[in-house]
Amino acid sequence: MSSPSNTPRTLTYAAAILEAVDQEMDRDPDVFVMGLDVDDHKAILGSTQGLLEKYGPERIFSTPLSEDAMTGVAIGAAMAGMRPIHVHIRMDFLTLCMNQLVNMAAKSHYMFGGAVNVPLVVRSTIGKSWGQGPQHSQALYSMFAHIPGLKVVAPSNAHDAKGCMIAAIRDNNPVIFTEHRMLYYTEAMVPEEPYEIPFGEAKIRSKGDDLTLVGISNMVVECMRVHEILADEGISVEVIDPISLVPLDMDTIIASARRTGRLLVVDNAWTSCGMSAEILASAAERIDPDEGVRMQRMGFAPTPCPTTPTLEDAFYPNPATIAQKAYAMVRPEDKNWSPDPKRAELAYQMHFKGPF
Amino acid sequence: MPESGPDQPGSEDIERLFRSLYLIRRSEERIADIYPSDKIKSPVHLSIGQEAVAVGICDPLRPADIVAGTYRGHAAYIAKGGNLPAMMAELYGKADGCAAGKGGSMHLIDMANNILGCSAVVGTNIPVAVGFALKLKRDNNDNIVTCFLGDGATEEGVFYESLNFAALHKLPILFVCENNSLAIHTPIEKRWASNDLGMRVKGFGLGFKKTEDPDIFLIRSLAAAAIERIRQGEGPELIECHTYRWREHVGPNEDMDAAYRSLEAFRHWQENDQMARLAEMLGADKRKTLQDSVEDEITAAIDFAEQSPFPLIDELHTDVFAQ
């Protein structure tokens, strides 16, 4: 590897993840990558491209379709001192890993009195659009966030993806690393030298005074568009990106909500028992009712994700529906406002035309 | 019947094997005696009657070899040389327990003696043990993993997934199926479409041996041969050992009065008890010396557990995450 420069370059989300994994594999011979198709010509949307040639088949290898056992193998290898990165092409497949992740990965350090660590990274992508349908679109991070012992991250841009990946690989705990498919083509300024994004520190993506908008995963991108749309209306929105869901930086969210008096959480998942429920419950516990902070949330429709585009469009929150909700919280007297539909279209969704 | 016959054991072998069998049997009988006092607040799944499998399999292992046990794991833990005072303290829920009191009887661990943490969810230890075997192969030494599992675990999908992966990568792991023919109370006839586990295992390309004979020397001989082949890099194998659980599924008591299993089989296994057999093979003096030393060791372990403090309340929140 050539010596990294400090000057940021523009990288895609996929390239940023690849660079993080490459740099860590180069630094630490215990880091290895496993999962179905990690070493094929498509290389998990390019995010494992070239690692086979560089590190060989002992350090990056495809696996049988045995998610349950392969998760256990990764856990065992991690306990034995290695640092596996287990890759899944869809988060939906993590349901096949639940026993090992919930009963072993999450609990082993505690249940065995600190005798073992499980430094494991579980990568998976969330699908959306062009017919991903009910079983290729689920964002199941809140199921993992429920379990003590698992860290959960959902970076929303290439810069954070690289820093979170390096932090996840170096972490001595299992980390559920969630990557939204729509973010893969987005670009950000990414320093070449390795760096860590610390977990449990939310970032304020844009400053504002009228409403606090918390977006999770790709919803950060959509909330940034809402920030622009509502700025045109004279409404100033503060957009917060938690980045890591466990640990969760509630201090930053609560401080902002106290200042703006309004808190809207937009999750890329269902609302019931999800991250939006957790964030609002934590906020409600800590913010006195007398402070008068209004709280709302948005997420998937309470249905499986439909495949046909007409229904799928209605399933997800989007910049138009989010802007409408935020507007109504700030100006409840004006019930008929809606944004210009053209203004609400998102460039990052235009990149991907399908088919898969 | 298996191809290999029993070794000709020397007197040192007999003494060593007897001591291990007796240590497991008496430790568990003492646990059963203490149990009604409610000092042990952890469900115990006793191995009484099944000790010969753990002892016969572990005897040819080296200290550097790794053992993965099950929630019925006292026998494998002790047979591999696990720390007995730390095990007793763990059953008592004490701070000096092998899992700091946070695991209990079903989650014994002793990494200093290469005994992996046990899981209460059947079959869950299997792929984790395979992960350790992957690490051993990467390290390129000739140490191996031995993974104990019950007949019930062979019904879990993860068992077959694990066999396939271990065989695919020729990993250094010996699987040992302790077949006591019961999953809690449900007999194997209600669970297995075919009794031929070997056919299933061999289908994945693993070596397979089976014994229905209680003979500990035969078990040890099968293990020694398999372990040697695995050390040579010939890939994983599985040994199926029939055995018999003398006590209830969980708890300290016998439960033959519940009449869910045959008294005849129980009598057969009791009449072929390997601890009693080896006791007969020893001279009276030698036997007495070994028994006394084991009783002292157990008493010391129980005293250690009694004396150890309970964890401080603050410990509730420690070790959720590693530093």
Short description:
The complex is a heterodimer of chains A (356) and B (323). By secondary structure, chain A is α/β, with parallel strands linked by helices. Chain A has helices at residues 13-27, 51-55, 67-79, 98-105, 108-111, 141-145, 158-170, 219-232, 250-260, 275-286, 309-315, 319-330, 347-350; strands at 9-12, 31-34, 60-61, 83-88, 121-126, 151-153, 175-180, 187-190, 203-206, 211-215, 237-241, 244-246, 262-270, 294-300.
Can you characterise this structure?
The complex is a heterodimer of chains A (356) and B (323). A seven-stranded mixed β-sheet of chain A has the order 3-2-4-5-7-6-12, with helices on both faces. A five-stranded mixed β-sheet of chain A has the order 9-11-10-13-14, with helices on both faces. Chain A has 13 helices and 14 strands. The two termini of chain A are 33 Å apart. With 356 residues, chain A is α/β, with parallel strands linked by helices. Chain A folds into two domains: 9-190, Thiamin diphosphate (ThDP)-binding fold, Pyr/PP domains (Rossmann fold, 3-Layer(aba) Sandwich), CATH 3.40.50.970; 203-350, 3-Layer(aba) Sandwich (Rossmann fold), CATH 3.40.50. In chain B, helix 1 crosses helix 11 (284-307) and helix 2 (51-58) runs parallel beside helix 8 (216-231). With 323 residues, chain B is an alpha/beta fold. Helices cover 42% and strands 10% of the residues of chain B. Chain B contains eleven helices and eight strands. In chain B, strand 5 (182-183) and strand 6 form a beta hairpin. Chain B has one domain: 3-Layer(aba) Sandwich (Rossmann fold), CATH 3.40.50. Chain B has a six-stranded parallel β-sheet with strand order 2-1-3-4-8-7, with helices on both faces. Chain B is globular, with a radius of gyration of 19 Å. Chain A binds chain B through residues 58, 63-64, 66, 68-82, 99-100, 103-104, 108-119, 148-149, 151, 172-173, and chain B through 97-103, 107, 109, 111, 116-117, 119, 121, 124, 126-136, 138, 157-158, 161-162, 164-165, 168, 318-323.
